[in-house]
């Protein structure tokens, strides 16, 4: 069980295990998921609406990346809003390259489920990583 009392940290525990079904148990059917990375940088960036589209996005992420770490390191709650920092490390399955950092996540909870998810990254770091894996994939 998470050291933080919230829905979002429990989602993170399941996601770190790469347990798609368990992760989806915390997702509202009408979720709005916003990853503030343009789709031209990562194909699963931008906004996704609805649980079926979110499921597809999560499957795509798991197909391309292994979760080495996805750990909440700071958490606070204000009513239905949860604020979190997550330390992450993802390994690109095709190239073996890893990216590690800290992202910020803000969620809104409705009926005990994540209804709105906003995810903030170091965009320049992500762009550089995506250039690296594109280069390495072309070498193969």
Question: Can you describe what's shown?
Answer:
There is one protein chain. The chain is of the alpha+beta class and 140 residues long. The chain has helices spanning 7-16, 20-24, 51-64, 123-139; strands spanning 27-35, 46-49, 65-78, 81-92, 98-110, 113-120. A hairpin with a 2-residue loop joins strand 3 and strand 4 (81-92). Helix content is 33%, strand content 43%. A six-stranded mixed sheet has the order 2-1-6-5-4-3. The protein is built from four helices and six strands.
Give a quick rundown of the structure.
The protein contains four helices and six strands, in the order ααββαββββα. With 140 residues, the chain is α+β, with helices and mostly antiparallel strands.
Radius of gyration: 15 Å
Counted by DSSP, the helix tally is: 4
Q: List low-confidence stretches.
A: none
Tell me the distance between the termini.
Answer: 41 Å
State mean pLDDT (0 to 100 scale).
95
Arrangement of strands in the largest sheet? 2-1-6-5-4-3
Percent in helix = 25-40%
Query: What fraction of the residues are assigned to beta strands by DSSP?
Result: 35-45%
Order of helices and strands: HHEEHEEEEH
- How many β-strands, per DSSP? 6
Class based on secondary structure composition and strand pairing: alpha+beta
Write the layout of secondary structure elements.
Blueprint: H1 7-16, H2 20-24, E1 27-35, E2 46-49, H3 51-64, E3 65-78, E4 81-92, E5 98-110, E6 113-120, H4 123-139
Parallel strand pairs: 1-6
Antiparallel strand pairs: 1-2, 3-4, 4-5, 5-6
């Amino acid at each position: 069980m998470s050291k933080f009392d919230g829905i979002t940290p429990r989602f993170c525990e399941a996601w770190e295990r790469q347990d798609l079904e368990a992760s989806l148990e915390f997702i509202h059917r009408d979720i709005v998921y916003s990853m503030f990375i343009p789709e031209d940088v990562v194909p699963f960036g931008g906004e996704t609406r609805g649980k079926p589209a979110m499921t597809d996005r999560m499957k795509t992420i798991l197909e391309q990346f292994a979760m080495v770490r996805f750990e909440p390191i700071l958490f606070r709650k204000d009513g239905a809003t949860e604020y979190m920092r997550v330390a992450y490390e993802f390994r690109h399955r095709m190239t073996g390259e890893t990216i590690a950092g800290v992202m910020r996540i803000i969620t809104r909870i409705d009926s005990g489920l994540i209804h709105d998810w906003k995810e903030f990254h170091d965009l320049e770091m992500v762009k550089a990583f995506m250039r690296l894996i594109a280069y390495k994939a072309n070498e193969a």
